[in-house]
Amino acid sequence: MSELSPHAGRPGVIHDLGYRHFDGVREGTPAIARTLFTTGLRHAYGLGRSGKSKVMPFVLLAMSLLPATIVVGVVVLTGLGELPLSYADYTNRTQLLVSLFAASQAPVLFSRDLRHRSIVLYLARPLPAPVLALVRWSSLTVAVFLFTAIPTVVLFAGAMLSGLDKSDQTTAALKAVALQVLLAMLVAGVSGLISSVSLRRGFAVVGSVMALIVLTGIVTVLQNIAYYEGDSESVSIGVGLLSPWSLVNGLANAWDAGVDTPVPVDGAWVPAYAIVAVLLVAACLLGLVARFRKVGSR
Amino acid sequence: MGQPPVISTAGLTKHYGTVHALTDLTVDVGEGVTGLVGANGAGKSTLIKILLGLLEPTGGHARVLGHDIEHESQEIRRLVGYMPEHDCLPPDVSASDFVVHMARMSGLGASAARERAADVLRHVGLDEERYRPMGGYSTGMKQRAKLAQALAHDPRLVFLDEPTNGLDPAARTDMLRLVERIGSDFGIAVLVTSHLLGELEQVSDHVIVLDGGHLLRSSATGDFLQQTGRLLVEVVGTESERDRLGEALAQRGLTCRPRGAMVAIDPPPPELAEGGAVHDLIRDVAADLGLGLMRLQPDRRHLEDVFLEGGTRV
């Protein structure tokens, strides 16, 4: 017969341990920034959020993948000698979906914290406001980049399967990927800045759609009018500086990545396009940092 | 002795254009619970935001836990927790997930953050509802969740800005008890603001009074509530019994005045003050009159008096 201590015999006793201090390792700023980046990237695709917030990003992704799989199927089955459109042009043709993805997911990363003022809780923690803004932007940039890069990977895999020239395809695909990085930075910057200013989700989405889709439509129309009606090549190219998509497409055209513009972009226009693109990204980032600082101090 | 103050400010000033939110504030805050009292707009929240590095002061210096706010604000933000006055909870996230995330944002690893979040939510008293989205919470539950995120990373100091705001009397008492426990049982220094003086009287060791951005007074709560030397006596019965006692005591040479249902007796003359002679006298008088003595207590000052005094000084 074993002698039990008086307490051991009573099952289900809740022991109040009292308050326990934490004396484990505390991570530094880079590790915290990495955590925030990963969380942001997951949230952009609805992962770690409610079930219905996964619908929009994945439906858009499926829609942008569908043509790529069809193209791959056709190329593999019919044995075409080349892809019917270039990798960079594929991204350009699916620009509506890419823009919609950015417009719908930017508010998740930029409006929520500001609108519900949880930004203050972030700013009362180690990450400084500029780092916070940059990390948020990086999450969205990578999310948009993945959105455009996944179809490229599918197309590239199809091209390899059907035995197209490996070095040609690799060069074209890498060009497309480089352009996609720039595009993602621009699109994330513009839609992020708009979302951080207009805190109502609806307004933010509409604002981003205006800036990314409607503006690009207007720019394209003006480019064509200037070229076909006004016979002015430089006006046609110049107007292209006004929207993220026309900037990237202009650079793609100059780089011979298989994207047509009404007038070929060459000469001094190439550095002009590159400089405007970089300035636009920088301006968006500065705007985001200023915005985060301002809301945080209220 | 020799312990540096948790917070020390020197000539801290913050002006928004022509609005002077804080003027030349020089004050030290020690361990335990410190109450920061002032009317709305007295500069309480501004002070906290400056100490956190969210606002830049117009002038002056401050140190928090030995770190300078100007150059080491990141280090300060590692060590402090902050519960803002306003709503700051995203409605579509559960308290559990949110507190875990906030703990990670303070540098805790994934498993440590989960463990701490569960601990802290238990301490603030959020049970099953911690798994529900916070949008559906009552004000009391929201305040608890806000407090939990401030404690998630086991800070050395927490700033609690109006933690009892919007709470009903029962929830208010609960919250104040929690604040007291944070200061004593948890061993975390607390700077808690309120515009209700009575609340802070109950829980704080030290009280700082701000008025229009100026320091009105800073001292231990005991000093605020120091005894005035007056006595308060209450007898069974109505006002007529009260007056009978008062008149009888006045005949014995004590200065009496009615206060509510009680008789307030001014500090007695020296021959009666010694050895509790005045207490015996009151007991005898009440017995002679056949009155039931219900209460005999020293009269204390209230925090309100500080404002009244301050008001006359300005």
From TrEMBL, chain A:
<feature type="transmembrane region" description="Helical">
    <location>
        <begin position="272"/>
        <end position="292"/>
    </location>
</feature>
<feature type="transmembrane region" description="Helical">
    <location>
        <begin position="143"/>
        <end position="164"/>
    </location>
</feature>
<feature type="transmembrane region" description="Helical">
    <location>
        <begin position="176"/>
        <end position="197"/>
    </location>
</feature>
<keyword id="KW-0472">Membrane</keyword>
<feature type="transmembrane region" description="Helical">
    <location>
        <begin position="119"/>
        <end position="137"/>
    </location>
</feature>
<keyword id="KW-0812">Transmembrane</keyword>
<protein>
    <submittedName>
        <fullName>ABC transporter permease</fullName>
    </submittedName>
</protein>
<feature type="transmembrane region" description="Helical">
    <location>
        <begin position="58"/>
        <end position="81"/>
    </location>
</feature>
<feature type="transmembrane region" description="Helical">
    <location>
        <begin position="203"/>
        <end position="222"/>
    </location>
</feature>
<keyword id="KW-1133">Transmembrane helix</keyword>
